[in-house]
Amino acid sequence: MFRNLQPVTKNLVILNIVVYIVCLIFSSRGIDLTNYLGAHYITSPLFEPYQIVTHFFMHSLSNPLHIFMNMFILANLGTILERVWGPKRFFFAYIISAVGAFLIYNAAGSYELYQLKQTLVQMGVDVQQLDYMLRENPQAITRTMEMAPYIDPYVIKSYTPMVGASGAIFGIMAAFAYLFPNTEMFLMFIPFPIKAKYLIGGYFLIELYLSIQSIQGIYADSVAHLAHVGGAVFGFVLTLIWNRKDRNNFY
After folding, report:
1. pTM for this predicted structure
2. Residue 185 lies in a domain
3. Which of 7, 29, 128, 136 has CA atoms 20 to 30 A from the CA of 234?
């Protein structure tokens, strides 16, 4: 399969794997690059503009299945789309889906973080000093949290970054489902094929449901479901626009 990969798809897979290995090496030496290269909310004191790009080459070090599944889908579906679109258009779709996922995920999380900050200000907390400690002195933050546990939600949300190429991958999946809706796909342990429009469409609906539950505080896990939804929406809309302009193309 690796020999048949298109150039952009192959380079993206290689780059993600190399970054993952580098992060593992640094982690073994006690340096967590996730805090620097993962995407923090734009209202977090730890946010840096370059994180908008670096975060979608990062993956969870504690869950190797995260990068495996993303790269497996990218290698399979990305190669097909790159053949259809060409390398430039495919790379553009990948980046737009990833950035779109960041924007939508950040829109909700940044507002929530802003509200937490305003609550602390009303309680008389020196948020500027708190933000300084978040950036420069994490040990002091730990001690402060022990003395004032009501700052926990703000600190945790400020510290927690988004990582992974999942937003871009969902954009690729949405594009594939639109262009090849009746392609039959197989899932492990399910002995019959499922058409792409049903399999990917159903997966999107599950992510949409979980993201709504997460926003409402009903369901919480470590997965950025809203980023998946954002990537799928941007990938689908971009494909829809391109397909309307290229009316002579039928896939």
Report:
1. 0.89
2. no
3. 7
